[in-house]
Amino acid sequence: MIRLEQHGPILEILIDRPERRNALTDAMYRDIEQALRAADADVGCAAVILSGAGGHFTAGNDLAEFQMPQSTQDVGSIAFLHTLASVNVPVIAAVQGQAVGVGVTLLAHCDFVYADRSAVFRLPFVSLGLCPEGASSYLLPRLAGARRAARWLLQAQPFDADEALAGQLLSEITDDPLAAARACAQALAAQPIQAVRASKTLLRAPERDTIHQVLDTEAQAFFERLKSAEAQAAFRQFFARKSA
Amino acid sequence: MIRLEQHGPILEILIDRPERRNALTDAMYRDIEQALRAADADVGCAAVILSGAGGHFTAGNDLAEFQMPQSTQDVGSIAFLHTLASVNVPVIAAVQGQAVGVGVTLLAHCDFVYADRSAVFRLPFVSLGLCPEGASSYLLPRLAGARRAARWLLQAQPFDADEALAGQLLSEITDDPLAAARACAQALAAQPIQAVRASKTLLRAPERDTIHQVLDTEAQAFFERLKSAEAQAAFRQFFARKSA
Amino acid sequence: MIRLEQHGPILEILIDRPERRNALTDAMYRDIEQALRAADADVGCAAVILSGAGGHFTAGNDLAEFQMPQSTQDVGSIAFLHTLASVNVPVIAAVQGQAVGVGVTLLAHCDFVYADRSAVFRLPFVSLGLCPEGASSYLLPRLAGARRAARWLLQAQPFDADEALAGQLLSEITDDPLAAARACAQALAAQPIQAVRASKTLLRAPERDTIHQVLDTEAQAFFERLKSAEAQAAFRQFFARKSA
Fold first, then answer.
1. Between chains, do B203 and A154 touch, taking CB under 8 Å as contact?
2. Is C218 on the interface with A (CB under 8 A)?
3. Which one of 3.10.690.10, 3.50.50.60, 3.90.226.10, 1.10.10.60 gives the CATH number of domain A2-174?
4. Can you tell me the distance from the alpha carbon of A52 to that of A70, in angstroms, rounded to the nearest whole number?
């Protein structure tokens, strides 16, 4: 459900589970993580592109997997996010349609994000009785400003591409996000590659430790919340609605 | 001069001293602080709304009280700001007319701020020979950007609702700020309340320690400045103008 | 090549090497640094204005000097940047024409920056096989947002005054930047001067230590990059093009 294509110095990672709007399972996180690690270890890799199949980016974490509270150890999503926050190879995202939950929070870790006007972003954590993850409690106020972060995370308001651009979640709105991501990757590949990586390393250095800490703090709070009566009620309602 | 109204899970705090444009005295800070503490301790409280009576938010600290330099210990305004920076219950402000000094800096600690076009914001600290307070030296550059913070704090330029919105001091400009604040509070009350609080806790966690430290550092500098010849001259001029 | 003019409480520093678009040599950095230190030590100095002669701000570091890799100790540019990040006297920049490399990164340390529409900004570090300097890896994402910082630093895209204003590198776009800088300086001089300095001190305090550390971390990476095959190749190409 994760497809990899190498085009010269550029790695493309495609989330390919369109029948579930590319909802992410533990195994899928691990496949993406492994691909990111390999790209980062390959000194000839100029950029990684992440996109979704079938007109959507990703509906976020597969909710079926959320019903089994577990420890933060050995959870694919969290390992993936730690790796995404660690790589020095530039990561570019191309977004169409639904981007939900971790499908939004992972964008804050990318270097360039292109979306078209079909994109809709949602962070429904509180509505599910949960709390922010993916270091979004730290990154979104800094990227989008405290007022937008409050609307997105505390009120759980969905937002469109214009609002995402105003909040710096996007680099640009474009008719063909994947084409824009590829052009960006090629432009990066035309630069001295190690200079680009050294520059990304410096850009990220001042907050990498904080981000790793926040990922763990949030994960602990998140798994606490998963066991809460509020979350259990919200999940029962969600699956009841779905099967109705 | 502080009126409290509980509407179900929502607490409304009204600054009610319209004959002095809601200028805040030590006793008034303490009343607001106590109400905030009680709301935060009440796990059923979904949101607190803060507004001013008579068409103004607040003219800021009562200047008559500024003339008596005192220690930072046991000062109502500073205790209030520490509490405002500590509560996990969401705080919503509704602003009309004058918002001056601490009437602006406290807004940076709120989660949602609604204002109408009558709102005028002023941070006249340097003009009074003083320096920023309320952690504004830390929060305003991060909220509004360094350039706006320099205009607001170093040049002491007044600004209107549009500039405040552009600088993320406001969530929204609306014809009826109190109605907007109430709608926001009701929307929050419709979410799982503990999930909202846990989310606010995470959003604030990365900088709470810094904010408490900055509040104290600023307070020390502020009370030093109060004793300065520059401040004494500015205050004499202010009260001479007033009694003329 | 650095001209100083004192006008009452205001010091004007003019970079005056128009035949090289005001490219900065080690000696020029040292002259500016010394002037800044003197202004900061003069408690009667209300503001410093920095501008360039002949229709350009500065083409940045003189590239001829970049060809001799050296230690980070005793480098004029780095000592200058540490001092610029340390002074409590307000610094105002007036920008026309080319602002390149350190000519952009130094602006992030200024309190007010005025530019006209002739201004073009470039951070060509990666294109030269280098990496960010001047604490730009820390300051630009915070000033301009992560998406703009990625375009400016990772893609090395030139940008105009509108983009610089949107990214808070500028305070204002104006027809006469030097006149605007002088008006700003006079407005500051009309305020209680020590209150202004105390306010700038508070505004900078939360990140001064970080900025000094980042300056050193970047400088170390920068001089490593200068010795790299990528940088040597880029420089050969640059000078070949120039002499062709």
1. yes
2. yes
3. 3.90.226.10
4. 27
DSSP code, position C24: B
Neighbours of C236 (CB within 10 A): 11
* pLDDT greater than 90 at residue C238: no
Q: How far, in Å, CA of B203 to CA of A137, rounded?
A: 5
Compute how many other C-beta atoms are within 10 angstroms of the C-beta atom of residue B62.
Answer: 17
**Counting every residue, how long is chain B?**
244
Is B186 in contact with B114 (CB distance < 8 Å)?
no
Report which of residues B239 and A189 the model is more confident about.
A189
Inform me whether the pLDDT recorded for C111 exceeds 70: yes
Q: Is the pLDDT of residue A67 over 90?
A: no
Q: Report the b/e string of A2-24 with b at 16+ CB within 10 A.
A: beeeeeebbbbbbbebeeebbbb
Q: Which residues have C-beta within 8 Å of that of residue B3, sequence separation ≥ 6? A: B13, B14, B16, B53
Of the candidates B89, B82, B75, B2, the residue with the CA atom closest to the CA atom of residue B38: B89
Long-range contacts of C78-81 (CB under 8 A, 24+ apart): C78/C215, C78/C216, C78/C219, C79/C29, C79/C30, C79/C33, C80/C29, C80/C30, C80/C32, C80/C33, C80/C36, C81/C105, C81/C106, C81/C109, C81/C133, C81/C134, C81/C135, C81/C215
Residue pLDDT, tens place only, B107-161: 999 999 999 999 999 999 999 999 999 999 999 999 999 999 999 999 999 999 9
In this complex, which of C131, C151, C210 lies closest to A206 when CB atoms are compared?
C210
Instruction: Tell me the C-alpha to C-alpha distance, in Å, between residue C78 and each of A66, A95, B240, B244.
Output: 51, 41, 50, 54
Q: Do B171 and A151 touch (CB under 8 A)?
A: yes
C191 vs B contacts (CB less than 8 Å): 126-127, 155-156
pLDDT of residue A28: 97
Q: pTM of the prediction?
A: 0.96
End-to-end alpha carbon distance in chain C: 28
* Four-point Cα dihedral A169, A175, A181, A183, nearest 10: -130
Taking the alpha carbons of B214, B217, B223, B224 in that order, is the dihedral positive or negative? Answer: negative
Give me the residues paired with residue C85 across strands. none
C218:A195 CB<8 A: no
A196 touches chain C (CB under 8 A): yes
Alpha-carbon distance of B111 to A145, in angstroms, equals 11
Class for the domain spanning C2-177: alpha beta
C20-44 per-position pLDDT tens digit: 999 999 999 999 999 999 999 999 9
Q: What is the DSSP string of B91-102?
A: EEEEE-SEEETH
**Using one digit for the tens of pLDDT, what is the confidence trace for A103-117?**
999 999 999 999 999
**B68 pLDDT band (50/70/90 cuts)?**
low
Q: Give the DSSP per-residue string, C144-187.
A: H-HHHHIIIIIS---EEHHHHHHTTS-SEE-S-HHHHHHHHHHH
pLDDT tens readout for residues A137-153: 999 999 999 999 999 99
The distance from CA B62 to its chain's CA centroid, rounded to whole angstroms, is: 14
Cβ of A203 and C132 within 8 Å?
yes
Please indicate if any CB of chain C lies within 8 Å of the CB of A27. no
Find out whether B51 and B57 touch, Cβ atoms under 8 Å: yes
